[in-house]
Amino acid sequence: MTAAARVVTDAIRKLQRRTTAVIVVALDGRSGAGKSTLAAALAATVDAATVHVDDFYRDIPEADRLELSPAQGVDRYFDWERLRDEALTTLVRRERACFRRFDWVAGRGLTSSVTLQPRDIVVVEGVYSARPELYDLLDLTVLVETTNEERERRRHQRSRTVSRDDPHGWDARWDAAELLYFEAIRPRNTFDLIVSSNA
User: Fold this and answer.
1) Which helix (H) or strand (E) covers residue 172, if one does?
2) Which sequence spans correspond to the domains of the chain?
3) How far apart are CA 95 and CA 165, in angstroms?
4) DSSP one-letter string for 94-162
5) Do β-strands 97-102 and 110-116 pair in parallel, antiparallel, or remain unpaired?
6) Three-state DSSP state, 65
7) Are the beta carbons of 190 and 137 closer than 8 angstroms?
8) pTM for the full predicted model
9) 194 in helix, strand or coil?
């Protein structure tokens, strides 16, 4: 287990000693920071149900997406209402969560329904997972960090083409929304824990 996974696991264990309720852990951070890898390590260690924010990417026409300001992007890139209602709220009640995922292969639409079984621990991972609209459901908020160089290396390894030179491109718009979120909405000092994915 990595040092980051140990730190988060220890925090979860402390919470478990104080409550019998479902514990919801948000792993937030910039794209390429290592959130998914940490979530997988936690799920193997603490038998958690894992919810991926990426599954709730909002299915809207690309022309409409292009018109979004950074603030609108924070609110609209992901369907946080559906994430809250169909996944997190249900799992907190110890009920099975059924929802449809965004179809990343097709680049639009939703897949058929998937089911997550309830667990004592729920890990929700992805950028915007600790957004204010989910505060009342979250027991532990974790900011996952790495260097900008490492984030860029990881992003370039992904199948999507990265285009930094186009100010209207997906990455430029995505980065502007992320920066706004982590500077004005969810600054570093508002998280319960900060871990490095390099550790």
Assistant:
1) helix 170-180
2) 3-196
3) 46
4) T--EEEEEE-TTTTSSEEEEEEE---SEEEEESTTTT-GGGGGG-SEEEEEE--HHHHHHHHHHSSSPP
5) antiparallel
6) helix
7) no
8) 0.90
9) strand
Model confidence over 61-115: pLDDT tens digits? 888 988 899 999 999 999 999 999 999 999 999 999 999 999 988 888 999 899 9
Q: Which residues of 84-111 are buried (b: 16+ CB within 10 A; e: fewer)?
A: bebbbebbbeeeebebbebeeeeeeebe
Helix 35-46 × helix 3-18 angle, to 10°: 50
Q: Could you read off the pLDDT of 110-169 as tens digits, one per residue?
A: 998 999 999 999 999 999 999 999 999 999 999 999 877 777 777 767 655 444 445 556
Answer CATH for 3-196 from 1.20.1250.20, 3.40.1110.10, 3.30.1490.100, 3.40.50.300: 3.40.50.300
Cα angle 194-83-176, degrees, rounded to a multiple of 5: 55
Residue whose C-alpha is closest to residue 122's, from 159, 179, 83: 83
* Of 45, 35, 65, 59, residue with least CA distance to 130: 35
Structure tokens at 112: 């058929």
Residues 6+ apart with CB under 8 A from 58: 76, 77, 78, 79, 102
- Per-residue pLDDT, averaged over 4-15, amounts to 96
DSSP string covering 6-54: HHHHHHHHHHHHH-SSPEEEEEE-STTSSHHHHHHHHHHHH--EEEEGG
